[in-house]
Amino acid sequence: MNKTMMGLALALSSFSANAQAETETDFRGNVSLQGRAFLSEPLFPNQEDYNLSVAAQPEWNWQWNDRRDSFTLELFGRWDQNDGERTHADIRQAAWIHVGEEIETRVGLRRVFWGVTEFQHLVDIINQSDLVEDLDAEDKLGQPMINFSTVQDWGIVDLYILPYFRERTFAGADGRPRLPLPVFVDDPLYESDDEEKHIDYALRWSNTIDVFDVGVAYFDGTARDPLLLPAFINGELGLRPYYPQIERFSVDAQATIESWLWKLEAIHQHRDGESFVAMHGGFEYTIVGFMESAADLGLLIEYGWDERDEQSTSLFQNDLLFGARLAMNDMASSELLMGISRDLDYDSHSLLVEGSRRFGQNLVVSIDLRLFDSDEPEDVLYGLRRDDYLQVDLEYYF
Q: How far is CA 125 from the centre of its chain?
């Protein structure tokens, strides 16, 4: 965490403390123990077959001024047994929110999610992915921002000013799973001379029209997905992240028609005289009261496509995905998600299984299984072919 971000967090904390006498406060969070067992011998020396880690994520909330003002501080930290890059800490949120008559103002570090599809979040660009947490890129670093939001009859408009860029995290040389070459995360390259201090902007309109939930967005700034360039540093061959400047238009839409959810995310991205289009879409059909029980079963089919074909950095450049989601609707909130993808260019496959169940009021047990199958060295998935793993998480909520 750099000095600029720490200063912003401390300033906001001090501001909140002064107003605390009039506030309602709430404290919550969780601590977790995670174990991973890898099912194949590692590709690289110093990698291990088993890994343990411990994480904590406390959160404080303050509200005052008849709840028109609030402040949230959410911290995250993980200690990892084998991967020094995965041992890290972050301020997920440290933000003041003021609800005005016409405009809601949000200032500080926050996390914002855009997207509707299950297996890839193509349009989600505000926050950087905390990739050492999980390959699915759903864990996000806190993003410094000023966000103005207004709700009108014709939709919701959000303007984002993003004054500082967060670099992506990658697993270290001893970590699993990781890329075939180590990533020089401490030596990134930027297209902009302002580097991480470049000010990015985003604008999004969203609305619900009949059965459709629609979002249209524009982003101008530093790409969240770096290009990984081969480089020698101190005599070692590795990958150096390069963050270009981009413009991106995006559309996300979801239609709810009885038991059907139809979903689409699409982007048009422009950089340095070149542009490309990518999309991800599909449907989910829910069988309510599956087999005359209280459970619901959702069946999913999605397809991901990227105009760049094999030049794409995405795992879903030409991929067909099938999934099933079982929600037991019981007191323990038991859920199970299964998905399998097939890359139509490389004929490779990946499988994921995610299940969770609550025990008592405070304990949640989660089990994740990830399998990777690829025989093509050009395939991004090829680097993970020996990193199949089973993961168990014990999370205690307070």
A: 9
Tell how strand 318-327 and strand 296-306 pair up: antiparallel
Q: Report how far residue 340's alpha carbon sits from residue 368's, in angstroms, rounded to the nearest whole number.
A: 14
186-211: per-residue pLDDT in tens? 999 999 999 999 999 999 999 999 99
Residue 236, beta-bridge partner list:
233
Nearest CA among 187, 174, 167 for reference residue 231: 187
pLDDT tens digits along 112-160: 999 999 999 999 999 999 999 999 899 999 999 999 999 999 999 999 9
Whether residue 89 contacts residue 1, with contact meaning beta carbons closer than 8 Å, is answered with yes
d(CA 132, CA 83) in angstroms, rounded, equals 9
Determine the residue type at 301.
I
The DSSP symbol for 120 reads -
pLDDT digits (tens, 9 = 90+) for 38-86: 999 999 988 999 999 999 999 999 999 999 999 999 999 999 999 999 9
Q: Round to whole Å and give the CA distance between 122 and 115.
A: 7
**Structural tokens at position 212:** 């459709």
Q: Contact at 8 Å (CB) between 293 and 266? A: no
Q: What angle do CA 389, 394, 398 make, to 5 degrees?
A: 150
Contact 182, 228 (CB under 8 A): no
Residue 171: count of CB within 10 angstroms of its CB:
24
Backbone φ, ψ for residue 146 (5° rounding): -120, 125
Structure tokens at 328: 């037991």
How far, in whole angstroms, is CA 161 from its chain's centroid? Answer: 20
Phi, then psi, of 380 in degrees rounded to 5? -60, -35
Q: For the purposes of burial, counting CB atoms within 10 Å of the CB of 384, is it exposed (0-12), middle (13-18) or buried (19 or more)?
A: buried
The whole-angstrom separation of Cα 204 and Cα 227 is 26
Task: Judge contact between 111 and 121, C-beta under 8 A.
Answer: no
Handedness of CA 381, 384, 386, 387 (dihedral sign): negative
**DSSP of 225-253:** S-EEEEEEETTEEEEEEEE-EEEEEEEEE
- For tokens 């499988």, what's the residue? 351
pLDDT at 18 (0 to 100):
53
Three-state secondary structure call for residue 310:
helix
CB–CB of 304/319 below 8 Å?
yes
